[in-house]
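--- STAGE predict ---
source: upstream dedup step, 1 unique chain passed
mode: sequence only
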Amino acid sequence: MMEIKFTKDYEFFRHDPPHNEGENVRTIVTIRDNKTGEERTYESYCIWDEDSQCPCTFIWEEGNYSCDCNRKIFFGQAMGEEYDDDETPCGDNAYSVKIVSKKNPSIVIYRDGYYELEATNERD
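--- STAGE serialize ---
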Protein backbone atom coordinates (compact mmCIF):
# COMPACT_ATOMS: atom_id res chain seq x y z
CA MET A 1 0.00 0.00 0.00
CA MET A 2 1.31 3.46 -0.85
CA GLU A 3 2.24 5.87 1.91
CA ILE A 4 0.42 9.23 1.87
CA LYS A 5 1.41 12.43 3.69
CA PHE A 6 -0.38 15.80 3.66
CA THR A 7 0.94 19.31 4.19
CA LYS A 8 -0.82 22.61 3.85
CA ASP A 9 -0.36 22.87 0.09
CA TYR A 10 0.62 19.41 -1.17
CA GLU A 11 -0.51 15.81 -0.92
CA PHE A 12 2.48 13.47 -0.93
CA PHE A 13 2.54 9.78 -1.75
CA ARG A 14 4.95 6.98 -2.51
CA HIS A 15 4.40 4.53 -5.33
CA ASP A 16 4.05 0.88 -4.47
CA PRO A 17 7.31 -1.12 -4.81
CA PRO A 18 9.42 -1.31 -6.85
CA HIS A 19 8.91 2.40 -7.72
CA ASN A 20 8.89 3.81 -4.19
CA GLU A 21 12.32 5.38 -3.85
CA GLY A 22 11.07 8.92 -3.24
CA GLU A 23 8.03 11.01 -2.52
CA ASN A 24 5.69 12.40 -5.14
CA VAL A 25 3.17 15.26 -5.15
CA ARG A 26 -0.31 14.88 -6.64
CA THR A 27 -0.97 17.49 -9.34
CA ILE A 28 -3.52 18.70 -11.86
CA VAL A 29 -2.13 19.32 -15.35
CA THR A 30 -3.87 21.57 -17.87
CA ILE A 31 -2.52 21.18 -21.38
CA ARG A 32 -3.48 23.59 -24.14
CA ASP A 33 -3.34 23.10 -27.89
CA ASN A 34 -1.97 26.52 -28.84
CA LYS A 35 -3.35 26.31 -32.39
CA THR A 36 -6.98 25.66 -31.41
CA GLY A 37 -7.00 27.04 -27.86
CA GLU A 38 -8.58 23.81 -26.59
CA GLU A 39 -7.58 22.89 -23.04
CA ARG A 40 -7.71 19.50 -21.37
CA THR A 41 -7.07 18.67 -17.72
CA TYR A 42 -5.91 15.48 -16.04
CA GLU A 43 -4.45 14.28 -12.75
CA SER A 44 -0.76 13.50 -12.56
CA TYR A 45 2.17 13.88 -10.19
CA CYS A 46 5.60 15.45 -9.83
CA ILE A 47 8.57 13.95 -8.04
CA TRP A 48 9.35 15.78 -4.79
CA ASP A 49 12.87 17.25 -4.69
CA GLU A 50 14.13 16.86 -1.12
CA ASP A 51 17.03 19.27 -1.67
CA SER A 52 14.95 22.21 -2.89
CA GLN A 53 11.82 21.20 -0.93
CA CYS A 54 9.57 21.66 -3.95
CA PRO A 55 8.16 19.58 -6.82
CA CYS A 56 10.71 18.83 -9.53
CA THR A 57 9.67 20.23 -12.91
CA PHE A 58 12.79 19.42 -14.96
CA ILE A 59 10.99 16.79 -17.03
CA TRP A 60 8.45 19.45 -18.10
CA GLU A 61 11.04 22.20 -18.62
CA GLU A 62 13.81 20.36 -20.46
CA GLY A 63 13.06 16.64 -20.30
CA ASN A 64 10.86 14.41 -22.45
CA TYR A 65 7.62 16.06 -21.32
CA SER A 66 8.74 19.40 -22.79
CA CYS A 67 8.52 18.13 -26.38
CA ASP A 68 5.41 18.58 -28.53
CA CYS A 69 5.54 14.93 -29.63
CA ASN A 70 4.96 13.79 -26.03
CA ARG A 71 2.58 16.60 -25.14
CA LYS A 72 0.33 15.58 -28.04
CA ILE A 73 0.12 12.12 -26.47
CA PHE A 74 -0.77 13.63 -23.06
CA PHE A 75 -3.36 15.87 -24.74
CA GLY A 76 -5.07 12.82 -26.22
CA GLN A 77 -4.80 10.73 -23.07
CA ALA A 78 -6.51 13.51 -21.10
CA MET A 79 -9.68 12.58 -23.01
CA GLY A 80 -9.08 8.84 -22.82
CA GLU A 81 -7.70 8.65 -26.35
CA GLU A 82 -4.72 6.43 -27.08
CA TYR A 83 -2.02 8.05 -29.16
CA ASP A 84 1.12 6.51 -30.53
CA ASP A 85 1.94 9.27 -32.94
CA ASP A 86 5.31 8.98 -34.63
CA GLU A 87 4.38 11.73 -37.09
CA THR A 88 4.30 14.67 -34.66
CA PRO A 89 7.53 16.60 -35.07
CA CYS A 90 9.56 17.53 -32.05
CA GLY A 91 9.13 21.13 -31.01
CA ASP A 92 8.29 23.30 -28.06
CA ASN A 93 5.48 25.66 -29.02
CA ALA A 94 2.44 23.60 -30.10
CA TYR A 95 1.28 22.90 -26.52
CA SER A 96 1.39 24.88 -23.29
CA VAL A 97 1.22 23.35 -19.83
CA LYS A 98 0.11 24.58 -16.42
CA ILE A 99 0.61 22.34 -13.38
CA VAL A 100 -0.99 23.05 -10.00
CA SER A 101 -1.12 21.29 -6.66
CA LYS A 102 -4.12 18.97 -6.48
CA LYS A 103 -4.59 19.79 -2.80
CA ASN A 104 -4.34 23.56 -3.29
CA PRO A 105 -4.92 24.53 -6.95
CA SER A 106 -3.89 28.13 -6.23
CA ILE A 107 -0.31 26.83 -5.94
CA VAL A 108 1.14 26.92 -9.46
CA ILE A 109 3.99 24.43 -9.70
CA TYR A 110 4.90 25.10 -13.33
CA ARG A 111 3.60 26.94 -16.38
CA ASP A 112 5.01 27.62 -19.81
CA GLY A 113 4.09 29.08 -23.17
CA TYR A 114 0.61 30.55 -23.26
CA TYR A 115 0.12 30.19 -19.50
CA GLU A 116 3.34 32.06 -18.71
CA LEU A 117 2.31 34.87 -21.07
CA GLU A 118 -1.12 34.96 -19.43
CA ALA A 119 0.45 35.22 -15.95
CA THR A 120 2.78 38.01 -17.11
CA ASN A 121 -0.17 39.97 -18.51
CA GLU A 122 -2.05 39.59 -15.21
CA ARG A 123 0.91 41.13 -13.34
CA ASP A 124 1.14 44.15 -15.68
